[in-house]
Automatic annotation (TrEMBL), chains A, B:
Belongs to the FAD-binding oxidoreductase/transferase type 4 family. Its cofactor is FAD. The keyword Oxidoreductase applies. Keywords: FAD, Flavoprotein, Oxidoreductase. It comes from the Bacteria. InterPro entries: FAD-bd_oxidored_4_C, FAD-bd_PCMH, FAD-bd_PCMH-like_sf, FAD-bd_PCMH_sub2, FAD-linked_Oxase-like_C, FAD-oxidored/transferase_4, Oxid_FAD_bind_N, Vanillyl_alc_oxidase_C-sub2. Signal peptide: none annotated. Residues 34-213 form the FAD-binding PCMH-type domain. Pfam families: FAD-oxidase_C (PF02913), FAD_binding_4 (PF01565). The lineage of its organism: Bacteria, Pseudomonadati, Pseudomonadota, Gammaproteobacteria, Oceanospirillales. This is FAD-binding oxidoreductase. It comes from Halomonas casei.
């Protein structure tokens, strides 16, 4: 065994080190299930242990890849045989809850779902929500600045974090566990680490912001006759449901029709010939009031011709049925095999033009095999685009990437709305960021991780 | 004239340079009206001009202090005779408004109030609000991460900024004018500059997030019998008005009684013998619904003994009357002359203990002259404390500072909730931040401004 591993074994103990077959047993890619190739997986049980681990790695110039719940899809967790993995899986405690201050203090390895449940237990809510909730961890949510379905109301993960503890590449522990909504005593250091994908520091603990519980949930699936009607509907809902609108998801016809086709497990709740669909959701505290306001908006939209049909969920089963169509990625993976997945953002006004042009180019280049589906968080300017050309070769992948990302440039769009960059989008970063921005990112990286040990090669080449 | 000034004159033209008497005419301190002492005030008219100015200053190792609306109160705008001031006052345009994307693109020198009004004109709102709205600028709001009265609903300035353009100390322009709610394409660079008080870069333009307009505004002033009742009232309002609660301001008896005493211009709307008062405000889209919900909460609070009396504003004049007592700082300055002003945050659960202990110590040390008033944004954990000992000597000031800040340490409180650090609180930074945090701040400063030219000596020694 190499000396470093032996040193680390002395720090974290036997249960803290995985070697050999145990490494390849875990996959680093949710889509491809590619096995982990790291030389070892180190599992510290405390910040102090991790600090010592990083001090040793720093001295040995050992690069490290941090693992959370492994639900990321931009290859941010890929580790090569010369790299060590640090997994936060044994640091998964909820340490404290303050109902008056509306905060929760947790270790980074706790899952999103456990945090959500712990908040519910004291009649509050943790506002971040996304499909991978059962597996993804708070540390991963912070490292990637996770988004999800309620950003329009509560913001991304960045807005849910009040305090942070990180271990720097040399083992220094920076504890910045602020619990207050307001704290302007110097630079807000946590902001640098949120969304930096493990390249600037390793998140070990956090203070999370809780929100009041919202017992009243209204959900509808509506059919929308045009893209203009879709943006007008968003405007109407944003205005008339301003305080309570918590999700506004758009589904292009190609998504809804595929997801509810005969070969899938979903039955269509609405006819499948509408150009667009939307899932609208509100969260509130007063069931009667919320239901009335919600129904009024749907009526208004129907009268104005912004929607042509609607299903209003009147049970949690129906609500789940509506969301299942949106959240079921497995069916997409199966139907669009082999599938390329994209997560972009651009100004809402340009979305339809962008999507139509992209579809045109895809069909021109792959007239037989090109298929795409589009859905996403319209209110956030965020679209998910899934494409297959029935060929997973690197060459085809690159050609599709160039179509998807290349067409974004003229709209000042982003190659990554919420998934991050990782390895997958690294080569396209310059399409969304200027040379000055990338130079500044590199300056930050150099200042914080001068030996380039933390998730090296991710985000920045 | 020195060569550098001459070079800068060639860049910004004659109207762009203020010299001699024009410099001392403007004060750098809202409280003391102390005159500016800089060697010149440079007023660029474009980002390009500022970029050239900074390139020259960088070559000449010329330190620079950035000025916005000069409403800050931590001496962040103080400039010594060897420093140049860069004022953004001529860069005050609103460049674009996107009603569908809900964004506004502005130059840094525009006032907060003009941004608020421009948003209203398209039936939207800009959510940051604070007393200095007519003078403070968006650039200053960004540089200080301004807070104000609606943080509980909309967050601080940080949450209102989608994109940013900054000029670095060497003149490099970093344009990161993102317009989307979600953009995870690499590090979110703007976060570093927000709240850095002009020490890392000069903000020149921004993309601001707009929110739907909220035509229905409910405001009440209530009398609260105890601190426990105050936190229970906050909890009740946060829960039952979860979506619409936009302000929850607490006034200690010492504040309310002083502000409505015979020598001031305010008449008390409620008897002045209650231990605490609160101003509660909601913003919503449906007047009838909001008014009903608001009245229900006040009834509930009255029944539960959380409040003993209430005035509900039924006109904008009454609403203004309630807010005037809270926002009238001039009267405080007059009544508590010479006044020391503090802006701290700490966990809500410890607030009463902290304030009581502080008042005890103040009265013990200055039995004849010590007077303090307390008010602030309870929901944010943020208190403003105004103190006089009828003596403005540096010695007395320091003794009072030590009382106020020293007592915060055991609660992990912050010496600055929303005003920033500037020069005024610099020596106390270590009370709110660990050596590791301060070391990391210095590392950031060194990485971004290696010659220490931008607002040198502010925040960090």
């Amino acid at each position: 065994m190499d000396t470093l591993i032996n040193d680390l074994l002395n720090i974290v103990g036997k249960t803290g080190v995985l070697l050999g077959d145990d490494i390849a047993l875990r996959s680093v890619d949710w889509f491809t299930k590619a096995p982990c190739e790291a030389k070892a997986i180190i599992r510290p049980q405390s910040t102090e242990q991790l600090s010592q681990v990083m001090a040793k790695c720093h001295a040995a110039k050992q690069p490290v890849v941090t693992h959370g719940g492994l639900t990321g899809i931009v290859h941010g967790a890929v580790a090569s045989p010369n790299e060590l993995v640090v997994s936060l899986e044994l640091m998964n405690q909820i340490e404290a809850i303050d109902a008056i201050g509306s905060t929760m203090q947790v270790q980074a390895g706790v899952t999103l779902q456990r945090v959500q449940e712990a908040a519910q237990e004291i009649d509050m809510q943790f506002a971040l929500d996304l499909g991978a909730r059962g597996s993804c961890t708070i540390g991963g949510n912070i490292a990637t600045n996770a988004g999800g379905i309620r950003v329009i109301r509560y913001g991304m993960m960045r807005q849910q974090v009040l305090g942070l503890e990180v271990v720097l590449s040399d083992g220094t522990v920076v504890s910045s566990m602020n619990t207050m909504l307001k704290n302007n005593a110097g630079y807000d250091l946590k902001q640098m680490f949120i969304g930096s994908e493990g390249t600037l520091g390793i998140v070990t603990r956090a203070v999370l912001r809780l929100h009041p519980n919202m017992p009243s949930e209204q959900t509808a699936l509506v059919a929308v006759p045009s893209f203009d009607a879709l943006t007008s509907l968003l405007k109407l809902a944003s205005k008339d449901l301003a305080n309570s609108l918590s999700a506004f998801e758009a589904l292009w016809n190609n998504h809804y029709a595929l997801m509810t086709s005969a070969t899938t497990k979903h039955t269509p709740l609405l006819a499948t010939d509408s150009p667009f669909y939307a899932i609208i959701e509100t969260l509130g505290s007063d069931e009667k009031q919320e239901a009335e306001a919600f129904a009024r908006v749907l009526e208004k939209a129907l009268e104005a011709g912004l929607i042509t049909d609607a299903v209003l969920a009147n049970s949690s089963t129906q609500r789940q049925g509506i969301w299942d169509v949106r959240e079921d990625i497995e069916t997409l993976v199966h139907e669009l095999n082999p599938m390329f997945s994209y997560d972009i953002s651009l100004p809402i006004t340009h979305m339809n033009e962008y999507v139509t042009a992209l579809e045109g180019k895809l069909n021109a280049q792959w007239p037989e095999t090109g298929t795409m589906v589009v859905f996403g968080h319209l209110g956030d300017g965020n679209l998910h685009i899934m494409i297959t050309v029935r060929d997973a070769s690197p060459h085809s992948r690159r050609e599709v990437e160039e179509l998807v990302y290349g067409s974004l440039v003229k709209y000042n769009g982003s190659i990554s709305a919420e998934h991050g960059v990782g390895l997958e989008k690294r080569d396209y970063l310059a399409l969304s960021r200027s040379p000055e921005e990338i130079a500044l990112m590199k300056r930050m990286k150099l200042a914080l991780d001068p030996k380039n040990l933390l998730n090296p090669g991710k985000i920045l080449a």
